[in-house]
Write a structure and sequence with these properties.
Helix content is 51%, strand content 22%. The protein has 140 residues and is α/β, with parallel strands linked by helices. The protein has one domain (3-138): Rossmann fold, CATH 3.40.50.960. Helix 1 packs across helix 5 and helix 2 (45-54) runs parallel beside helix 3. The longest helix has 19 residues, at 120-138. The radius of gyration is 14 Å and the shape is globular. The two termini are 20 Å apart. The structure holds the ligand Nc1c(NC[C@H](O)[C@H](O)[C@H](O)CO)[nH]c(=O)[nH]c1=O and ligand LTPLIIQW.
Length: 140
């Protein structure tokens, strides 16, 4: 049993609730403990995970967020930089599943967030579990 931290960027409440529920179910079904931390937006996710990783309390992380394209270049910044930051932490050996949706509209997000449909929160949690297994396999 390990302790996981779900870090959610709470930008769209109803979509977040579904993504977090899917992630929680996947982790708890696998027998792990879960805590949830909330940050304002997807750009805060990598920094928050980096800070939490420092304390050594968590075996792995799931980043949850929703970025919906607007009218400006902001979408590219938020979508690209949040993914880049999480990938950098992953390359440092931290077990993180990326559950940040980057979509054109709310309908696309709903289908992907819903645990009964694409369940991207659960998918991200399962990715974190795989990375945690790999950490153990390659530890010496
Ligand atoms: N537009 C979206 C954002 N933008 C906010 C940023 O993530 C950040 O919180 C702000 O720039 C302050 O640093 N965040 C999302 O999660 N989703 C969006 O669609
Ligand atoms: C992430 C986005 O594109 C969006 O939330 C911001 O919208 P806008 O580009 O219309 O300011």
């Amino acid at each position: 049993m390990a302790r996981f931290l779900i870090v959610e960027a709470r930008f769209y409440d109803h979509l977040n609730d579904m993504l977090v529920a899917g992630a929680k179910t996947a982790l708890e079904t696998a027998g792990h403990d879960v805590e949830v931390l909330t940050v304002p937006g997807a750009l805060e996710l990598p920094g928050a995970i980096a800070m939490a990783a420092e304390c050594g309390r968590y075996a792995g992380f799931v980043a949850i967020g929703v970025v919906i394209r607007g009218e400006t270049y902001h979408f590219e910044i938020v979508a690209g930089e949040s993914a880049r930051g999480i990938m950098a932490l992953t390359m440092d050996g931290i077990a993180i599943g990326n559950g940040i949706l980057t979509v054109e509209n709310e309908q696309q997000a709903l289908v992907r967030a819903d645990p009964a449909q694409k369940d991207k929160g659960g998918e991200a949690a399962k990715a974190a579990l795989v990375l945690l297994d790999l950490q153990a396999r390659f530890a010496n």
